[in-house]
Amino acid sequence: MNLRRARVAASLAVLLLTIAAFSYYIAKHPSLLDQLRHMRLSLLAVLLGMYVVFTVSLVFILAASLRIIGVRMPMHENFLLTSYSSIVNFFGPLQSGPGVRLVYLRKKYNVTVRNFMFATFLYYGFFALFSGLFLTVTALQWWQTAGVMAGIVAASLAVIARQRRKVAGAHFSAEGIVGLALATLFQVLVVAVIYFTELRSVHANVTFAQAMTYTGAANFALFTSLTPGAIGFRESFLLFSQRLHHIDSSHVLAASVIDRTVNVAFLGLLFLVTVGLHAQRRFSAQPPSAPPGSAGAQ
Prior knowledge:
Largest sheet: none
Helix content: over 70%
Structural class: mainly alpha
Radius of gyration: 20 Å
């Protein structure tokens, strides 16, 4: 009974903290509400739809990452965990979404920290690789980009092959690695389409190649971000990389405001959806009686 009360209290605390984070963020950034009121409904609908696709890409990434360490998670549970960690990652300090996933996976599936970090850093490696390629798409010839990619892939595979022996229960297979790589590439492409749509709404002459470079710079800002939603960091990276993407600073800032406005609106809707699905009941941290194929705790 005490354990049940503790879970209920923890669920209530997460709910209240999330609502408080939303309220505080909106109070500190009232311009987002003004931007939302003046945004064309067609643009808002298109961007919200793209963020749905972006969330789907995160679900694929989590599923591929867990497959590498031998964990099978039901799709609805994957969606709920992805949704909660996305909300925390945006509003929480220090991009803390991965911490939420680690705590849950340790309690529910006995995933070790080492295995989780292996899968997470493997994903970050693919994310950095594709973001780097996007960043240089307008600066290098295609054969130079291909050479850089080949070198990075070779070095990455060497590091992965060396580290995989230290990962208990990891199923290092071509299928798992290719699945994670494709899911990550899909994520970066979706982000590029989102940014392209936002940039075209403020400057009709922006090309998709420019949006790809813009995306690469914005993605690298996430690795150094200390603020919710990488506020300030992303804008700085985009302004410093103007010589690569050649997008005027006024358009960068205007597109950034649109993106943050839609992102906050989407996360608010996502939070309501998870509550509506009675996530506090399904999102249980009780270990299963016989988790099939899960990684054992060390």
